[in-house]
Structure formats: C-alpha cells, structure tokens
UniProtKB/TrEMBL annotation:
InterPro entries for the chain: Acyl-CoA_ox_N, Acyl-CoA_Oxase/DH_mid-dom_sf, Acyl-CoA_oxidase, AcylCoA_DH/ox_N_sf, AcylCoA_DH/oxidase_NM_dom_sf
GO terms under cellular component: peroxisome
PANTHER family the UniProt entry points to: ELECTRON TRANSPORT OXIDOREDUCTASE (PTHR10909), PEROXISOMAL ACYL-COENZYME A OXIDASE 1 (PTHR10909:SF250)
Signal peptide positions (record): none
Protein species of origin: Elaeis oleifera
GO BP terms in the entry: fatty acid beta-oxidation using acyl-CoA oxidase; lipid homeostasis; long-chain fatty acid metabolic process
UniProt name for this protein: Acyl-CoA dehydrogenase
SUPFAM superfamilies (alphabetical): Acyl-CoA dehydrogenase NM domain-like
Domain called Acyl-coenzyme A oxidase N-terminal: residue spans: 17-132
Molecular function as annotated in GO: acyl-CoA oxidase activity; FAD binding; fatty acid binding
Length: 212
C-alpha cells in the first residue's frame, strides 16, 4: 500500500521557515545534524525494523530487544561513533533494554558519585561494556522515594567491608521489566548509618554476578 502523508498539506501552509524551526527544536545546527544522521542510520538498517514489534510475544520481544541492542553496540564501534552520536542512536532505536539503565543511570552514577580512583577503575570497563550495570534505587514498597528506603549498609570492622541488607519484603530492590536479567553489577542506594547524626543515603557499587 502506498504511504500517504496526511500532514503534507498543512505543513505546506506554514508561515515560518521549517528548516530554521528544526534547528530551534533540536537546540543547535550541530544537534540537528547528529539527530538527522542517526535517524537515517536506524531507518536504513533492517535489523532495527519496528513494524513487527506489536506482533511479537514476550519472549520474542525480549530476544529481539537483545539482538537490536547488540547490533547497535556493533554499529557504534564499526562507525566509531561519538558518545553523543551513540546516545542519539539508542534514542531512535526506541527499544527499552538494559543499555538504557547502563548508559542513562549506571555510568552517570559512577561519574557523579565515584572517587577519582573508582572512576579510573570502573569507567573504562563500563564504556567498553565489559561490565554492564544497573541502578538499584527503587524498592518494592517505596518506589523511588529516597527518604523511605529500607535497604541498609552497615560497616563491619572485622572484615573491613560494608554489609548491604534488605531486611523486609518492602525493601526488596525492584528492577522493572527484564532489565535484571542482563546485569553484572549495580549502583545500589542504601541508608547508611554513620553513627552520629542518623542515616545518610549512600551509593555502593556492588557486583551482582561473578566476573569472568
């Protein structure tokens, strides 16, 4: 069936410069160029097709999402895309997956909360996706209400380690959709009792599975 652009007539009556409006909408000419190139890249790649998405079952959708995420990562490397371009490519991919939390929340948590030493160790691995991380803030009984979080981190001087503990059902860290199946490590937000003015909330970088 031939496609019909039902808005073409209305667009033709615009009283402003459409190309100039595109720049304003994107924020800059550079941002528009990046957006346009990544949109064309996604639209021209058959692996990124979306027309069959509504016909897929849950398992098929899960596998399809993983395949697209892996292919997107492959294209990022093959084309040597910048971080800005890669982010825009994932946006146009329009397929929620584990990479959204990895790039959108896990990596920024390390950059914003990690020490220089921690960033030096973990960011190169995260950028190469040699580790895949999530962001464990939401709890079953509290949503993302930080003040209500029950998961605790208690320092054990005998082992020189922190013990992260979710003592109740409502304190269970809750990962939406299938994201929890794909992670090796996470940034976990806990109530941290430092012993003199009640609990603080601190981020802890915690492995979920063994590396290697």
């Amino acid at each position: 069936m031939e496609e019909v652009d039902h808005l073409a007539h209305e667009r033709s009556k615009a009283q402003f410069d459409v190309d100039a409006m595109k720049v304003v909408w994107a924020g800059s000419k550079h941002a528009l160029d990046v957006s346009d190139r990544m949109a064309r890249l996604v639209a021209s790649d058959p692996v990124f097709r979306k027309d069959d998405r509504t016909m897929l079952g849950r398992k098929e959708l899960f596998k399809n999402t993983l395949r697209k995420a892996a292919h997107a990562w492959k294209r990022v490397h093959e084309l040597r895309l910048t971080e800005e371009e890669a982010s825009m490519l994932r946006l146009f991919l329009d397929e929620p997956s584990y990479v959204d939390l990895h790039w959108g929340m896990f990596v920024p948590a390390i950059k914003g909360q990690g020490t220089d030493e921690q960033q030096k160790k973990w960011l190169p691995l995260a950028y190469k996706m040699q580790i895949i991380g999530c962001y464990a803030q939401t709890e079953l009984g509290h949503g993302s209400n930080v003040q209500g979080l029950e998961t605790t981190a208690t320092f054990d001087p005998k082992t020189d380690e922190f013990i992260i503990h979710s003592p109740t059902l409502t304190s269970s860290k809750w990962v939406a959709w299938w994201f929890g199946k794909n992670f090796y490590t996470c940034s976990c937000l806990c109530s941290f009792d430092h012993g003199w003015k009640g609990p603080w909330h601190k981020w802890f970088h915690s492995p979920v599975t063994k590396f290697g």
